[in-house]
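ARCHIVE CARD
CATEGORY: sequence design from structure
SOURCE FIELD: tokenized fold
FIELD CONTENT:
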């Protein structure tokens, strides 16, 4: 059962890279060995919406919450903001939303 659920785990956010603090962040749109899922819009209500709308990425544990450079870490704000911007653009494109519609769902705009 677990493998079937993971096989269905894909994001509408295209895979990519981002550079900050002399560090290369890499994220994937499907689960890759050694990665963890990060819901781009977190917090109780937005985490569920991120899952519903497939707005999550797969990143290394270090880029998630296992280092100060991680998206939840002390120096992860630039990466966090970048992911939110990429996710918002993807959601608007895939779901045909304008900025106001995105705000209705997630509470604010990141672009």
């Amino acid at each position: 059962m677990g493998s079937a659920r993971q096989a269905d785990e894909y994001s509408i956010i295209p895979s990519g890279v981002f550079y900050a603090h002399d560090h290369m962040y890499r994220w994937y749109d499907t689960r890759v060995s050694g990665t963890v899922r990060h819901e781009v819009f977190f917090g109780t209500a937005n985490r569920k919406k991120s899952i519903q709308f497939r707005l999550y990425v797969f990143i290394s544990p270090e880029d998630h919450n296992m280092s100060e450079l991680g998206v939840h870490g002390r120096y992860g704000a630039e990466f966090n903001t970048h992911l939110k911007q990429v996710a918002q653009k993807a959601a608007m494109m895939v779901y045909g939303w304008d900025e106001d519609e995105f705000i209705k769902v997630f509470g604010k705009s990141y672009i």
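CARD ANNOTATION: Residues 1-5 have pLDDT under 50 and may be disordered. Helices lie at 2-7, 44-52, 61-64, 77-95, 99-106.
SHELF: design records, drawer C
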